[in-house]
Fold this sequence. Notes:
With 100 residues, chain A is α+β, with helices and mostly antiparallel strands. Chain A has 4 helices and 5 strands; from the N terminus they run ββββαααβα. Chain A has helices at residues 38-48, 53-63, 68-84, 93-97; strands spanning 7-10, 14-19, 22-27, 32-36, 88-91. In chain A, strands 2-3-4 form a 3-stranded antiparallel β-sheet. A two-stranded antiparallel sheet of chain A has the order 1-5. Chain A is globular, with a radius of gyration of 13 Å. Chain B is globular, with a radius of gyration of 20 Å.
Amino acid sequence: MDRLSRLLHLRDDVRHRRVEDEGVLVLQNEAEVMVLNDLAYRIIELAVEQRTVASIIAALEEEYDVARDVLTGDVMAYIDELTNIGVARLTDATSEENGA
Amino acid sequence: MAAFGQDFLTDTDLFPARISGEPWGEMSLILNVAGDRYLVTGLSRTQASVIRQRFVDVVFDQHKDPKKNIVPIRIFRANSNDFRDDPPRGEPRTLETLPQSELVQVAGYHFMALLHGFPTPATGMWTCETAGLAFRLAFENMFRLMVAYRLLMRGALLLHAAAVVSGAQAEIFVGRSGYGKSTVSRLSRDAGCTVLSDDMVALCMDNGELRALPLPFTGELDPATGMADCYPVRALLWLNKGNHHELSALSRAAALSALIVCAPYVNNDPNRCEQLMQNADRLAGGAPAYTLTFARNGGFRELLNQRLAAPWTA
């Protein structure tokens, strides 16, 4: 399935908070903390709303004055980083709807 | 997944459901720690003696100020057969916690404990130890955790941090084990500063001012004597070992992160993460925060004295 149509989920033990123009992710299982820039933290906020990657990019496109292809590249790279370190995962949106 | 407490308890189903049991004795005492009065009851004579010796600077017989909140700790008997005799991985200070919304279960070497009744925790501790180092370690392991939770509920934090008084203000050196807390403490003491602790300190906000409160939990260095109840904080310093001295500003988010990482016990409690972030955010905004890169000599003191001398506003 196209990655853009997949849902981005944060791991259950991840907590987050905006602090001024940055964000903080707390990974409770490891008692580790990540500091995120504004765009990265906005992706986290949108992920909490159970959005697809495409929907996240669309929302960010309205908020940031960045060309879509650049934005898409940045978002995909960041999502790859999150999934590679196990903080988030992508799931099939249709299987979610079917309760799979 | 391992069941909670199985490293320490022979039968995890025996974990007490509520704070009750048979006390070891009728002795009691009060520990005055970081602005709270902990009333420890149910002690045998030898147990009370152990706590008195260990916490000699903060122990009282009577509650002198009835207006102050008392946090009760009740000590109960447990059978030695309830506990495993082989401490896991040779770490006698290791303990396990199972946080829930209204309580926290704790299992450690030769003890169980239940922190109950948030936001004002009361604690029950069941132990088979009656004297000496074994009881001291069991009690202190439980007590550190309880102080951490109590501070969290008060909007404060217990931190793995060194605290050094320079002038009339405290510098808080934040870092995990091995980051250099004892080293900077020793070098600061050699430079004429007073070391409140090289291992743990409490931070709180008081009338809009960030303050450091000494704790009776130390690492390698003995604490200074004649300490005040609290000291205004002039800087939060995240430690970074290097081969030169450098001070670089930390954003508030990074400072908050440093505080969370170094807030033991409570930083892996999913039920209290929001409270932890809220406290850390407020405390991080109370003083300037930096990363201190330091070499193993006292040169960083001169750097701090130069850079931190100017007044700071949030």
